[in-house]
Amino acid sequence: RRNQPELRFVKRYPDDAGYIASLVESIHAHWREHGKPERLLLSFHGIPRITVEKGDTYHRDCMETVQALRQALGEDGALVHHSFQSRFGAQEWLQPYTEPTLRQWAREGVKTVDAMCPGFLADCLETLEEIQIECRDAFVEEGGSSLRYIACLNGNPTWISSLADIVERNLWK
Q1: Euclidean distance between CA atoms 110 and 22, whole angstroms
Q2: Handedness of CA 113, 97, 81, 24 (dihedral sign)
Q3: In 10 A of CB 103, how many CB atoms?
Q4: Do residues 93 and 46 touch, judged by C-beta distance below 8 A?
Q5: Residue percentage of the chain with pLDDT more than 70
Q6: What is the pLDDT of residues 155-165, one digit of tens each?
Q7: What is the Cα Rg of the chain in Å?
Q8: pLDDT at site 5
């Protein structure tokens, strides 16, 4: 008989206090260096709407993170908006879509937006290329001045400690 390790999955932590505190810490550090924007866009990876209609909790989890961040940011929570990125194919995905949202804001006269991707724990092609380059270019093309990207949590020490807490809590379930 083989001795194989047991697998456990952390299914969700959208409003975990440590996760939210890590995001807020990143936002505040960015604002100390660059000043506050007119809007803060939380861009989550999209999924087909049919997936949610079949019972997936992803959309609800994203909205819980948005609400928790709004609350944690206090009066600055009013700056927070959300969108969904990385769609492909012909079917409808979760909305609002990120790039069209940014284009619309620029046409409405919004000049500075900070964008953050809280659903991505580490920067990748979809954050560095799609948001930091393609979406920034689209925003500026429509008349916006500055789309500033707030990096993913990556190796943020507060996040690493919070992640360890999440893992430890789930080890003994």
Answers
A1: 27
A2: negative
A3: 18
A4: yes
A5: 99
A6: 999 999 999 99
A7: 17
A8: 83
pLDDT per residue over 80-100, tens digit each? 999 999 999 989 999 999 999
pLDDT (average), residues 22-31? 98
DSSP 129: I
pLDDT tier at 7 (50, 70, 90 boundaries)? confident
| φ, ψ for residue 124, nearest 5 deg | -155, -175
Place of tokens 């690493």: 160
DSSP assigned state of 155 = T
How far, in Å, CA of 18 to CA of 2, rounded? 37
State if pTM tops 0.85: yes
**CATH numbers and ranges of domains, the chain:** 17-88+99-171 (3.40.50.1400)
Helices (H), the chain: 17-34, 49-53, 58-72, 98-107, 125, 136-141, 157-171
| Phi and psi based region of residue 74 (left: phi greater than 0; alpha: psi -120 to 50; beta: remaining) | left
3-class SS of residue 126? helix
Question: Cβ contacts of residue 115 below 8 Å, gap of 6+?
Answer: 40, 41, 43, 102, 131, 132, 135, 147, 148, 149, 150
